[in-house]
Design goal:
Blueprint: H1 11-43, H2 49-77, H3 79-83, E1 91-98, E2 101-107, E3 113-117, E4 119-123, E5 128-134, E6 139-142, E7 149-152, E8 158-162, E9 168-173, E10 186-192, H4 194-205, H5 214-225, E11 255-256, E12 261-262, H6 265-273, H7 275-278, H8 292-303
Parallel strand pairs: 1-5, 4-10
Antiparallel strand pairs: 1-2, 2-3, 5-8, 6-7, 9-10, 11-12
Helix pairs in contact: 1-2, 5-8, 6-8
The structure holds dinuclear copper ion (CUA).
């Protein structure tokens, strides 16, 4: 998984990386010039009063002004394309910063939508517009390999255009301190071929699969009797809570708990039992009072929701 702004995989990040290299080159040039002049001042034979004055005027005023103006113009010119919206008809995806996870909502062409958490799927060459909101405090979404940073501000909608240029999995951490578990608020961005994204969208839009094994069925019964559905939705069942992440396809996600844990049955079990130990301050209550066996079937049920 890449999180490097200097190995860009998106249009925005490419512009930012090129700006970085030009700025670095420019500063290197200025530094070499200054060091050269300093060495000349120490070891040179010295010149007339007139040549000294000329050096001060050119080296101290004219050259820095010209160089800094060029770099400034170059930097400012890079901003408008970063803020430009994608072409009309591009996909729009809603992302809300919560305590401490990313709520991701994909509107579908038929007017419905589906939700998932901490994972964004995009296709190579397909620009999308993210509409960013916050449910509580200021968060900031930063996917270094794809684009620049954008804040999520309570009461406002901010926008960010992403246009992936190659496939891969990219990390998108929260880049604004937002409380206890700010460090465990990471969005996974998976970029694939358009056909693969289409298949994923169809799977995500479908309701949850019915649990197959007796263990998973017991887990579903536990899920319902423990009141999990008051906060979580599992589409196609009676669970329709909206406080926490939608779990309809939780088993298909790469990670859980805001990137904190790899998605496997054992992590789901640990998370359900002791979320506070993994993410201090998380709203999710711990179910450590349930017998181990009950926690295990719950985790098996959740893991099977692919
Ligand atoms: Cu959200 Cu830091």
């Amino acid at each position: 998984m890449s999180a490097s702004a200097l190995v860009p995989a998106g249009r925005g990040a490419e512009r930012i990386a090129s700006l970085f290299w030009w700025m670095t080159g420019g500063s290197l040039l200025v530094w070499l010039l200054v060091v050269g002049i300093a060495l000349y001042a120490v070891y040179g034979r010295g010149g007339s009063q007139r040549s000294a004055r000329r050096l001060i005027v050119w080296g101290g005023a004219v050259v820095p002004t010209v160089l800094l103006t060029v770099l400034l113009a170059f930097g400012l010119a890079a901003i408008p394309p970063l803020l430009a919206p994608p072409p009309v008809g591009s996909r729009t995806i809603h992302i809300t910063g919560e305590q401490w996870w990313w709520r991701v909502r994909y509107p579908l062409p038929d007017g419905t939508s589906f939700e998932l958490a901490n994972e964004l799927r995009l296709a190579v060459g397909e620009p999308v517009e993210l509409l960013l909101e916050s449910a509580d405090v200021v968060h900031s979404l930063w996917i270094p390999a794809l684009a620049g940073k954008m804040d999520l501000i309570p009461g406002r909608v901010t926008r960010l255009t992403l246009e992936p240029t190659r496939a891969g999995t990219f990390a998108g951490p929260c880049a604004e301190y937002c409380g206890d578990s700010h460090a465990f608020m990471e969005l996974m961005v998976v970029v694939s071929a358009p056909q693969e994204l289409q298949r994923w969208l169809e799977r995500q839009a479908a309701p949850a699969v019915a649990p197959a094994s007796p263990q998973a069925q017991a887990g579903q019964a536990r899920f319902q009797s423990s009141g999990c559905g008051a906060c979580h939705s599992v589409r196609g069942t009676s669970a329709d809570g909206v406080v926490g992440p939608d779990l309809t396809h939780v088993g298909s996600r790469l990670r859980i708990a805001g990137g904190r844990l790899l998605n496997q049955v054992s992590s789901l079990q640990t998370w359900v039992a002791r979320p506070q130990q993994l993410k201090p301050g998380a709203i999710m209550p711990g179910f450590h009072f349930l017998p181990e066996q009950e926690l295990e079937v719950l985790a098996v049920y959740l893991g099977g929701l692919e």
